[in-house]
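Entry 12.
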Amino acid sequence: QLQLEETGGGLVQAGDSLTLSCVASGQTFSAHTMGWFRQLPGKEREFVGGLSWIGDSTDYADSVKGRFTISRDNAKNTLYLQMNGLKPEDTAVYYCAARAEATAVKVSKRLSDYVYWGQGTQVTVSS
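Predicted 3D structure (tokens):
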């Protein structure tokens, strides 16, 4: 089992930056392809971006491309989501997720491809 815990959410103003962290425990973090998802009020959870465990290739949703950056520090078992130029429409609960250990290299945009999930952290962007 891989446990994930997100931190770093909060209330910010439009245009501000915020960095979310996701600390992993229980398995070899470096062997998991990771993703960030978000759930806007009244909507389904959606893909934000992901980072492969081999080669560190990334993929992002069009809505955040150029504003959000995903990175990982395997020594700290931590995944990051750097969010710049935040907009009110980025208001959501943000979740980190992991694909199965050492089996899935490619970043996937499908929720069902992720096996482990954190509890989420709220990000609110005021206008």
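Annotation: The two ends are 40 Å apart (CA to CA). The CA atoms of residues 2 and 76 lie 15 Å apart.
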